[in-house]
Amino acid sequence: MPERLLVVGQPTARMLDRLSGAFELVRLDDLNGSGAGIRHACMLGHTRIDASLFDRLPDLRVFANYGVGYDTIDAAEAARRGVIVTHTPDVLNAEVATTALMLMMACYRELLRDEAYVRSGRWEHEGGAPLTRSVDGQTVGILGMGRIGQEIARKLSVFDAEIVYHTRSEKDVPFRYFADLVDMAREVDCLMVITPGGAATRHLVNRAVLEALGPGGTLINVARGTVVDEAALIDCLETGKLGWAGLDVFEAEPHVPERLRALGNVVLLPHVGSATVQTRQAMGDLVVDNLLDHLAHGTVRTPVPECRDIA
Ligand code: NDP
């Protein structure tokens, strides 16, 4: 009899193929009381995972997350109970960085406005579109200089960007460090947000940061919606206190406030930072590798920092 694997969300066909050879899959909705004996679980999506689920799974050892961010999982509580949470770092760095640059370019070059202009037929009767802003030679502030932040910086070098950054502790990178986020926002043309989500970063980008970025400034958020004070962001965009915003994530996604959707100075994406066939395949492979390695040898490849001591 294969061991049971608890599945939260919908695995890809490729994941199902590999997993069903080794486990009997049990959906969270079908877990009727008897979670005892289940040692492995995986999640796709952003369901809140905390003590209430761990209570139902007394033998759980590995909780494998499809994604690098795990702000909806109480990893400290998992570690306390001997549950190793794993995630999918690095394999998505390039994709998320590309998404950040795509949003920046779409904002600067008014991609959506100009595309709509052609489709509307107005070009033929009204002449050329208004000029836009060059992406080249900008000062870009990166909030979060980790795996993805560094990849964003690398990709921006093609555009001759001057990179500066803010994190809690200074990193060994060849960019100017700002200990204060408002000070950094005042000096940059574009602010890229790529920190983890969760309580520690909630509303880090507040009204003061947005106003320091200013009417000529652009905010790009590919981190988590909670990092930005969305009400303040909408106010600033409506009143011209902030110029533009490119957003992949939202505070209460998939709900996106009507006022935000009505604005012309935003580019909005449905949380697709890593969502290409190639990158999602690599993420799925790493989730399955973590589970199969643990099943076969009791080891995992990519535990989250909170669980490294017990992995
Ligand atoms: P890393 O852990 O490698 O980097 C995180 C960076 O954020 C570090 O430089 C860290 O530095 C900084 N940071 C953490 N907390 C704070 C804080 N309170 N204030 C300032 N800086 C902070 O993570 P990754 O680069 O791999 O991923 C970052 C995040 O990107 C993920 O957690 C996820 O939320 C998001 N993401 C979004 C995706 C999307 O689809 N839009 C896809 C993939 C990831 P320090 O600790 O010194 O502060």
What does this molecule look like?
Helix content is 35%, strand content 16%. It is an alpha/beta fold and 311 residues long. The chain has two domains: 3-91 and 277-307, 3-Layer(aba) Sandwich (Rossmann fold); 93-268, Rossmann fold (3-Layer(aba) Sandwich), CATH 3.40.50.720. The strands form two sheets. A seven-stranded parallel β-sheet has the order 8-7-6-9-10-11-12, with helices on both faces. The protein has a five-stranded parallel β-sheet with strand order 2-1-3-4-5. It is elongated and about 70 Å long. The model has no long low-confidence stretch (mean pLDDT 98). NADPH dihydro-nicotinamide-adenine-dinucleotide phosphate is lined by residues 68-69, 89, 92, 96, 144-149, 166-169, 194-197, 200-201, 204, 222-224, 248-249, 271, 273-274.
What's the structural domain tally?
A: 2
**Percent helix among the residues?**
25-40%
Strand content: 15-25%
Low-confidence stretches: none
List the helices and strands and how they pair.
Layout: E1 3-8, H1 13-19, E2 23-27, E3 40-43, H2 51-56, E4 62-65, H3 75-80, E5 84-86, H4 93-108, H5 111-120, H6 122-126, E6 139-143, H7 147-156, E7 162-166, E8 176-177, H8 181-187, E9 190-193, H9 207-213, E10 218-221, H10 230-239, E11 244-247, H11 258-261, E12 266-268, H12 277-297
Parallel strand pairs: 1-2, 1-3, 3-4, 4-5, 6-7, 6-9, 7-8, 9-10, 10-11, 11-12
The structure holds NADPH dihydro-nicotinamide-adenine-dinucleotide phosphate.
